[in-house]
Input
Amino acid sequence: MDNVKYTSRRLAELFGLTPKQVVEIVGHRDGFGPRDLAVLRKAVRRPPEPFPHRKQLFLNFKGGTGKTSLSTSYAYRLAERGYKVLVLDLDSQGHATRCLGEEGSSFTKTLYDVLVRKTPLAEVTIETKMPGLWLVPANLAMSTVDLALMPMAGREFKLKNALRDVDKQYDFVVMDAPPSFGLLNLNALMAANDLVTPVLADFLSYDGLRLLFETIQGLEEDLSHQLENIFICVNAFNQTFRIAREAVDALREHYSEYLLHSVVRQCTKFAQASSEGCPVFGYDPDSKGAMDIEAMQLEVLGRIKDGLAARPDAARSAR
Output
């Protein structure tokens, strides 16, 4: 994320300042970067709004839904808000690692070492160039993790147990999962409070959703684990396509309880940002993709808060 640059106007918007005040606080007039966020936050003494610790999983068994672009941009925006965020890259392709400006092949340890070799999670965690955003990177070493977990006792709870050691260090844990079902994704589901499922506005998405909801029901029945929240987010939406509008209408009919009102529109900035090794907020915060993820995140956080307010016992246990 070396190429992430901010304007004084953007920093002023984030902190409720004027561009002139931004320049006075950081001490220079141009070349603003992520590190200046920490300087400004310390100067204005404006901590983020208190929020119960959350573990949030981005998962869809169908590939090609833009899950990694959403999850990394979502996590980056949380860090911009001042939260301490840990991103877990669960995919051996390491796309989330690359989207956050790191090269997976350069790391000798991944989540594989945590789950299989009992390495403490802190030993495989790196700090990104965005203050408040940490990453557990992934590379091809992750490809055999399901096989390695197979003979282990309590194999479904390895990730949940590993995350207990860092619960108090992060406000949010954001997990980016591969589009498949195996022991690693089962671990992620068992560790998560919230599930975010990106879908495309086409009818093929129903296959992935059906399988996912069948799996979730199995977890409830066989392992007594119930996710607190499930959010379905329509991604890469193009209003001009009739089939896309019809698909969204069908999703509203069958999954209204879970479907977010916010949709993320089709936006070329996502691909461009990924090629530059940064989330869309670091590449073009004024793009429609960034604006849509902003709206999606606010809706997700708002629904979680409303749900916790309605269940005081759950709110206390989440702290």
DSSP finds 15 helices and eight strands in the chain.
